[in-house]
Every structure is written in C-alpha cells, then in structure tokens.
Amino acid sequence: MKKIIHFIQDNKLFVLGIAIVLFFLLLAAFPGIFTNYDPDAINARDMLQGPSAVHWFGTDNYGRDLYTRVVYATRIDLYIGIGAMIIPFILGTALGLISGYYGGKLDSMIMRIVDIFMAFPYMVLAIAIVAITKAGINALFISMWLVGWKEYTRLVRSETIVVKQQEYVEAAKVLGYGDFRIIIRNVLPNVLSSSIVYGASDIVMCMLSGAAMSYLGLGVQAPMSEWGAIISEGKTYLSQAWWITLFPGLFLMIAGLGFSLIGDGLSDLLRAKRR
Amino acid sequence: MDVINYIIKRILQMIPVFIIVTIVIFFMIRMIPGDPAAVMLGSKASPEAIASMREKMGLNQPMWTQFLIFLKDLFHFDLGTSVKYNQSVSSLVASRFLVTAALTAVSTVFSVIISFILGYVGGMKKDKWQDQIIRFASLFGLSAPTFWIGLLLLTVFAVNLHLFPVSGWGDTPLDHIRGLILPGITQALGVSAVMIRNLRNNVIEIKGSDYVEFAKSKGLKNSVISSRHILRNALIPTTTLLALKIAYMLGGSVVIESVFSLPGLGALLVNSINARDYAVVQGVVLTFVIMVMVINLLTDIIYSILDPRVKLS
Fold it and tell me: Which of B26, B132, B151 is the best substitution to test chain A (most A C-beta atoms within 10 A)?
C-alpha cells in the first residue's frame, strides 16, 4: 500500500493520464449510465438550444441532446484511435526487427519502401487511399494502417541494430539458437519499450487524424456520431450555436491528453529503469 | 566541395524514389472503382458520350500504353486536363500552389517564433513557474485537433471581433497576409507543442554539459554563453524537427484550407476527390510529393552545414 502511494506521488501526471483514459473507457463501454437521452432522438421543438440544466451541452440542429451524442461518440473515437494504431504497431515493429536484424538486401529493400511512403505527406496519402476505396470507417482504417507503420519500422530498426551487437545476442548465436528464437527472446524485449512509448502518442495522432478525416467528410459518415463529424455538423451553425463545435473538441482534447500523459509517464519510467 | 558532392549524391538518391512514387500514384488513381468517364459525366450521360469521353481520356488503350503516355506528358509538364474546371491541371496546380506555399511559410514563421522562444525560456527556467506553464500548455497543444482550434479562433477573432476575414484569401497581397494569420497560427499551435518540448530538453542537456561549465569558468558573460553556446547548439536538432514538421504542415494544409476556405492545393484535392476529377487528384498528389522531397533535401543540406560532425558521405 505504501509503495502504491509512493508511486502515485512520484508519477502524478502518469496516474492522472491513466485515470483520464479509464474514465473514457468507461464512457465507451457503458454510455447508457451517463445519460438518460437517446443519442439519435430528434426533437424539433428543442432545436439549437444553448447549454442548460436539461441539456448540459445544449442541442443540435435536430434538437438532439449534444451531451448524449458526445458521450456515445466516445466508443467510436477510441475504437478509431486504438484500432488504427494497433496494426501498424505490430506490422511496423515486425518489419523493423527483420530489417535491423538481417540487414543487407532485405534491409535496404524495406527501407526503400519506407522512403516511398515517407515522400507522401500524412494527410495527402490518407485522403488518396480513401478516394480509392469508399469513404467510411473501413477506408479510414485501411488508410491509417498504410500510413502509420513506417515510424515504428524506423524506430525499431535503429534500436535492433544496437541490440544486435550486444554480447548476449552474440552468445545466443554461438550457442546455435535460430534467428527466430533470438529475435523473439533476446531482441524484441529490448526494443519493444520504445515502440510502446511511441504507440501511446500514436493513439493521439490516430484519434486526431481520424477526427480530421471525418470532419472533411471522408471518414465516419452520418448518422453515426463521432467527435470530428459532430464538429463538422456544428460548423454550419458556428455563429449561432458555438456549443456544437466546442464540446466534442474538448472531449477529443482531454482524451488525447490522457494518452499523451501515459506516453510521457512510460518513457520517464523506462529512462529511470535504464539508469 | 564536399557539400556540393553531397548535394549531388542526395539528388541522385531521390530519383529512383520519385520514379517509384510516380508509378504508385498512376496505378493508385486507376484503382478507383467505377468507370471514370461515366462517373465524371454523371448518371444522365448517354452511352455515346461516355464512349467518346473514354476515347478522349485514353482509357481504351492498354494500361502500359496509358502509363507511357502519362510519363511522356509528365516530361513536358503536362498533367492532363481537369474535367470539372475544364482547364489544364498544370495551370490549375500553379494557381493554387502559391496559396499553399504561402500558408506553409506563414505557419512556419509562427511555429519558429512560438517554439523557439517558449522552448528556450522553458529550458533556461527549468521547473520554475514559466516552465510549468509552458509544459502544461504544450500538453494541451499536443492533443487538440487543429481544425477545432481553427474553428474556435475563427469564431472569436473573425466572426465576433471582426479582426480577420471569416473566409477566403482576398484580392490584394495585404488581404492575403491578413487572411493567412489565423490559419498560420492554428497550424503553428499544433506543431509548436512538439518543438517546444524538443528545444527545452536540448537546452537543459546543453546547459549541464562540460563545455558550458568550461565557458563559465573562463569568465565569459552569461549573455554570450546563452546565445553562442547554449542556443546555437540546442537549435540544431530542433531545426531538423522543424523540417519534418514543415512537411507535415503541407499535408495539414488540406484540413486548414477547408476550415478557412482558402483556395489552395489541399482544398483542390478534397474537391477533386469528391468530383472524381482524377487527373487533378493525380497532379496534386504528385505536386505534394515533389514539395516534400525538396524540403527533405534542403533539410539535409542545412543540417550538414549547421552540424559539421555530420559526415558528408
């Protein structure tokens, strides 16, 4: 118990980040316990009302309760953030391991593919891929998977090259262990931490760019509620109903803050451990 | 002499990547489902019109012939014709290029001002109240969506306070600059958070280094140490990061131009995708790629000049 209190005191921001993320996971899992309204219930009489005791975040142009819509949107936004990050995390890390461990022709081939993907600006490539498929959540995932893997590969590759030269890897080779076993047992545990730290901040990037794509009309489609899509709907009523724009953005920012704090906390802990 | 050799080598390395990227773009655009001619002409078009359109667009040729024609045209800076605007893609891109380039330039200037000052102050005043505030603010900057910040700034400063135009680009150079201030600040806020952190950590590291201690013991003035030893060295990695962020902001212009209704390349890309104007999509993506490559090349060159430790090999 004392240890736990000590840990919290030493890592206040890290713990705050975990608390924020847990809160949003709770919103995503059980939106129904946080609100009594139906997110899609249209109510023409209550159109574009400002925030009040009845409607905490006001209502939109269909008279729908904005607080409820924002709460229900949490699930889809976290799904995009985590879902868009997890595949590149696995794929990019694996390619980085292979590239760094084997070197030679395989390495230069993988790095040239990285170069090609690096030549496209992030949003431009994502938008072009959405254009090929059909705007929607599947296209969003495919585009973000294709865009996101290369940073993991670059990161893991450079760390693998360092780890590969360590004595324990050399020793494992002398003992005659196979490459696959060495990569999984000896190299991966030593390069995974930096990949995870980057992954925490990558979730924020994925949530933000997923929301941006939906804002442009290229991601999540109406009537599904997603924070970026709600902001896009609010844009038309910006001068008369600022609340439609303000609140989903605040949620997005605070959720992102939670993941950023976790990323920072993890990297501090790892640095302390290495010393 | 070394520098020139290095530049030539870097340009030669870029050529194969550029060729492959061109191939990727060509085939990517042709993977878009549906008959481009039919989609472009709309659902009311007659089969004859569609057939003649296909002929005009060269869609009846085999794929590899189409690709050779594309390459030949590209060599003459001919990117095809836009169906929506009925104008050559190269002139369309040229007219929009200036807006995006100006937006990125203004954003870069704001990012440099914001992040260089705050990052330096944060590092020099480590753990004092200035540093605490700057760190707290940049945490928010990291996780706030840029299009949302843009909309908020637009509401406060353009719609309510009338300090800036609500949308568009205006007619005179002065209008242009006024129209770019809010979008530029918006882009800069998102990018600065990362750069502030980077510069702050560099300053802290260098402040504690041996050669700064040595300079102090030599009795050099604090102002000389700060500017010549600390700031200069701390800026080298941040400059590299800035270049990466410029490339990122080029892509971000797609979103910012849509928020502020600026007639740039990003807005053109989104409109062309919605209108299925494939020749334009292809031309704009290619232009973005060239811009990123040029920026990356310039970064490497500047970096090699700033930091003599980089081996020019």
Answer: B151
